[in-house]
Amino acid sequence: MLQRTPLYGAYKALGHYPDYWYWILRGRPQRSPHLLKQRVVREYGEKYGLTTLVETGTYYGEMVAAMKNRFAQIYSIEFVPELAARATRKFTDAKQVRIFCGDSRVVMPEVLALLRSPALFWLDAGYYGWVGIRTNEERLSAELEMILSHPYPHVILLDDARGLTGRDGIPSVEDVKNYVESKFPQRAVEVKYDIMRITLRD
Q: Looking at residue 70, which CATH number applies to its domain?
């Protein structure tokens, strides 16, 4: 099966371009294409002068591959051992990339301890169990609290915000917004193109 071959990542990357133009032709619906996600990550890194990217949900390493020459350091956390091992092999020559395997609630403190300046966090809402696999619904709040309580003013982008449905124990977008802005009043939350953006208030 193609998914099990080293070529699958490149195959998926090629599909990003038609996916992007199809998204535009359909009038920019809620689900945003990967090329747009890459642009948002790049723009927020540049806007806030961030040189470190932290990602949850490595998957096939598409975001890491797109950003490995744009950030001085990339840390990516993958829960599935097979995908983490695959990404480790894929980026073995990229010394600025480090792949972690495990539950992000366990691994995130280790990553945070490595940071010496503000970072850009790219969090995958699919990683929190909404895409058909029920995991611990407290994962998101645990991660957000760890990141936002850290001494540095990190910037957070949460992908696939539409997955925050407010059903079956999953928080809604409004739940997350209220939680962040009430517990961390210096932070502002907005959602655009299916990406939740958590930044310092102006």
A: 3.40.50.150
| pLDDT < 50 regions, the chain | 2, 129-134
Concatenated DSSP letters for the chain?
Answer: -GGGSTTHHHHHHHHHHHHHHHHHHTT--SSPPHHHHHHHHHHHHHHTT--EEEEE--TTSHHHHHHTTT-SEEEEEESSHHHHHHHHHHTTT-TTEEEEES-HHHHHHHHHHH-SS--EEEEEGGGGTTSS----TTHHHHHHHHHHHSSS--EEEEE-GGG-BS-TTPPBHHHHHHHHHHHSTTEEEEEETTEEEEEE--
134: domain range?
2-200
**pLDDT value of residue 28:** 65
* pLDDT computed for residue 129 by the predictor: 44
Number of domains in the chain: 1
